[in-house]
Write a structure and sequence with these properties.
CATH superfamily: Flavodoxin domain
Bound molecules: flavin mononucleotide
Order of helices and strands: HEHEEEHEHEH
CATH architecture: 3-Layer(aba) Sandwich
CATH topology: Rossmann fold
CATH class: Alpha Beta
Radius of gyration: 15 Å
Largest sheet: 4 strands, mixed
Helix content: 25-40%
Strand order of the largest sheet: 4-3-5-6
Length: 153
């Protein structure tokens, strides 16, 4: 909602040296008129204005999936509730998780990882990007370097 996770995702995508990288967002289709009112509804689980792009509902075409989420109340964004259940062909796929937060992100990975592994996916790397005011770009670059090294083309 604040754009920090998007920025990190775009930086990682632009740093990756793999031959083909696609970046897809779960879209919020309504214009945010009152951020706090909307946010309250979303936090209570109202997902009616979210749209899952078809490209992220089937993992078949991808070798490696990097999944990023902000931390809201120590948890992944509510849009992830039930998302993993909806995804096809997750079995045997390698996934990397990242989260962004201001202070601490305890349960975020635990929740996502449990769902992914239940469906036969394999979480191979996890990273929290923490920053109260802003997320340091250097840390993202270091993470991208590690990905380029650990997961070459
Ligand atoms: C409703 C709400 C709840 C949040 N809960 C937490 C939290 O539990 N721990 C934390 O460290 N940061 C928390 N944050 C801060 C966000 O995780 C952080 O700013 C994140 O980078 C936002 O990502 P975004 O800009 O992609 O929405 C919260 C922010 C909001 C708006």
């Amino acid at each position: 909602m604040g754009g920090r996770t998007k920025k990190v995702a775009e930086k990682i995508a632009s740093d990756l040296k793999s031959s083909e990288v696609v970046i897809e967002r779960i879209k919020y289709t309504k214009k945010l008129r009152n951020f706090f009112l909307e946010e309250d509804k979303i936090m209570k689980g109202d997902l009616s204005n979210f749209k899952y792009n078809d490209l992220i509902l089937d993992f078949e075409p991808y070798d490696l999936i990097v999944l990023g989420t902000p931390t809201y109340g120590s948890l992944p964004a509510v849009i992830f509730n039930g998302y993993i259940e909806k995804v096809k062909n997750i079995k045997g796929k390698r996934l990397i998780l990242f989260s962004t937060c201001r202070l601490i992100s305890i349960k975020t990975f635990r929740v996502l990882e449990a769902e992914i592994e239940k469906r036969g996916g394999k979480v191979v790397k996890k990273q929290v990007f923490k920053g109260f005011f802003k997320i340091g770009i250097r840390k993202v670059e270091k993470f991208s370097d590690e990905l380029n090294q650990d997961f070459p083309k």
